[in-house]
Amino acid sequence: MEKEQIIEYIDKLAVPKILIIGDFALDEMVFGNTERISREAPVLILEHYETKKILGAASNAAYNVSKLNFGKASALGVYGDDYYGVKLLEVLEDKKIDTSLMVLDKTRKTTTKTRISGTCNQSITQQIVRIDRQTKTPLSIETEKKVIDNIKKSAKNFDGIILSDYHLGCLTDNVIKTAIEQAKKHNIIIVADIQKSMEKYKGVTAITPNQPDSEKQVGFFIKDDKTLFEAGKELIEQLKVEKVLLTRGESGMALFEKKEGKIELKKIPAYNKKEVFDVTGAGDTVVATFTLALCAGLDAHKAMRLGNLAASIVIRYFGCHTVTIEDLKKELKL
Question: Of residues 11, 98, 284, 327, which has the active-site annotation?
C-alpha cells in the first residue's frame, strides 16, 4: 500500500460510532513501599503511596475504540450499587466513553480486580496479591431485559457493535441473540471477541479468537498451513460467520473469509516481534481497530493489517495500553 493510501485508511478509523456490549470491569492498582514484617502475622507492611484505577475487560475494548475514534464509543454492560460501580462509570466517562446505556444491578458486584504491589530499595515493583470482586452468574431476568431494551433502542445509532465476552454473565444467550438481530436489522457490522462457547455467536459478521481457543473449538492443533486452513474453514462453517480473524501470537494473524461459497485465507506476520514486553490487552486493541476499519468501509485484509499494526504498539508496554491515530501514523514513520 502507498503511504498516502495508508494515511487515508488510518484516518478513516476515526469516523465510525461503536457500541461495546459485554463484561465491563475496573482494574485497581495499589502500590506501596515495603516497611517491615508485621508483628501481628508473617506478612509485609506496605506504606501506601499510589492507587490507580484503569479499565479492564470490555472496558478496555471500549477505551481502545474511544482513543481511535475520538470518543464515539458507548458502553453497554452492568455495574453494581457499590463504590467500584461509581468509580467504573467515572473512569469510563473520563476516557470519553458514553455510559448512558450502562445498567445498574443492585444484586451484582461491580467487576473489580485489585492488584496490590510492593517495592523496596534496589528492587522492582512486584505484585503481592490480587483481590477479585465479581459476580459470574448470568444476568437476572429483570436486568437482562434492561440490557436488551437498551440494545433495541440504541443499535440504529451506531455503525458497528463489539461483543466483548469475558465470561462474567453479561452476554447471555438472549443478549447475544438480540444484538445480532438488531445488527442485521439495521445493517450494522457486529464483531465478537470471544474465547470459548463460540457456538453462541452464530451469525455475527466476524470473530477474533486466538489460536489456542480456536484449537479447542475445532478439536485439533494447528501445526501447518493445511491444519490452519482447516481450522478457519471449520470455524466459518460452524458459526455461520463471514470472517474469522485468528490471532496467532508471534506467528502473526490469519484471516478467513467466505466469498462466493469458497473460503479464502490470507496471512500476515507479526510486526515488531523483538520488542514484546506484555501482551495484556492486545486482543482488545485488535478487535477495536479491526471493527473500526470494517465499519469505515475497508476490506478485511486492510482491517487485519491495521489491527496487527496497532497490536505491535501496545505489546511494548506493561499492562493494558491503547493507541491513537497519531501513534499508528508515527509507527509507519509518515
Answer: 284
List beta partners, residue 225. none
Is residue 141 helix, strand or coil? helix
Bridge-partner residues for 132, per DSSP?
Answer: 113
pLDDT digits (tens, 9 = 90+) for 63-82: 999 999 999 999 999 999 99
Q: Which helix (H) or strand (E) holds 303?
A: helix 300-314
168: Cβ contacts below 8 Å, ≥ 6 apart:
23, 25, 57, 111, 134, 135, 136
Q: Are 175 and 205 in contact (CB under 8 A)?
A: no
What is the sign, positive or negative, of the torsion defined by CA atoms of 183, 189, 193, 195?
positive
Q: Which amino acid is at 60?
A: N
209 within 8 A of 244, measured Cβ to Cβ: yes
Sign of CA dihedral 228, 281, 9, 240: positive
pTM of the model: 0.93
How far CA 130 is from CA of 47, 74, 118, in Å, comes to: 17, 29, 12
Q: Which three cell numbers stand for residue 277?
A: 514486553
269-322 residue pLDDT tens:
877 655 544 445 578 999 999 999 999 999 999 999 999 989 888 776 555 678
**What values do phi and psi take at 60, rounded to 5?**
-70, -35
Is 11 one of the annotated active-site residues of the chain? no
Q: How many CB atoms lie within 10 A of CB 163?
A: 27
